[in-house]
Design goal:
The complex is a heterodimer of chains A (108) and B (265).
Chain A (H helix, E strand, L loop, with lengths): L4 H25 L7 H7 L2 H15 L10 H17 L2 H18 L1
Chain B lengths: L32 H12 L3 H17 L4 H11 L2 H12 L4 H12 L1 H13 L4 H9 L3 H13 L5 H28 L13 H10 L6 H16 L9 H25 L1
The chains are: A mainly alpha (108), B mainly alpha (265).
Amino acid sequence: MTHSATDVWIVILVLGAGTFLIRWSFLGAVGGRAVPLWAERLLRYTAVAVLPALIAPMVLWPAANGGRPDPARLIAAAATLAVGLFTRNTLAAIVAGAVALGLGSWLI
Amino acid sequence: MSAPTAPLSRPSPANPPAQHNAPTLRGADPETPRQAFRRGMIQALPFLLVLIPFGLLFGVIAQTAGFDVSQTMGFSVLVLAGASQFTAVELLSHDAPVLLVIASALAINLRMAMYSASLVPIIGAARPWERALAAYALTDQSFAMAVQNAERRPQATLAQRLAHFWGAAVVICPPWVVATYVGATVGNVIPADWPLDFAVPITFLSMVAPMLRTWAHLAAATVAIGVALVLAGMPNGTGLLIAGPAGMCAGAAVEAWTEGRKRSA
């Protein structure tokens, strides 16, 4: 790394401030004002849209497997999803996924 | 998972019946803020399985790349956003220009603007300093937990929702910082052959699966995944900024459609 300590600290401080402003944006500026019904309707689906979209490429094309689909990881993802849907319990889903991944990578 | 039911308040000298600030509406949530805080803490515990190993890994990678301990801690305390921290450290260690490093890492965090907007109906009525603190502690995990909690407990008051959020944040944020410090000073303590990369997908799926209660939720997830896969080649996860809103529109459209059918039926 040829960057000076000043460069590194500039990155840390600007990235920190910028990230805070992104996080604060709506929550801070809109605050307690009433949100229009259509917006509230859209925002209800932020979590179920963004979180799966964020990880979908990691599930299908894991970098640890050279970007190719890996049966153990696919099985683990399916197990997590199935147990999460069925039990509605996050911890149970995590345990199922971890066990499936451990068993899968050991067997395959 | 639900907290033990609080004893219903009975009229007594110590507990007069006319408490105007006590929730008396039918269906009001009897949970005290303290109970909500504790429930948030307990529900956040599973995420430590991911946050601790990745915090350690961040510390190790930053040290190996030549960052000193104060810089490494600067990232975890001031940025507090794993994926962008890894990207910034990676790009800096490959001598990328400072502006490019900042832009790339910020692009990864832009999704949090969507989280911020979604929290407005949930905790937007909090005081300004509380909202600023909540913004600092806004992560994928604390956001998902707040949404899940709001959906499961629609009667909860602002105080209850905030207490739940703080409980989750206390479990999620400080361990990230501590794990970074341990990784930076002690070194790698995680076996190299652990498939750690998949801890993130597993925990995210485990947060989302219980939320898929309606066709609208399912449509939102399906459309967002489809668009995200098509746009997977876009830099720094910017495809997500299209995939997310596309899924949200799909969810809202299906909700409007099913409501319209119910009304006309």
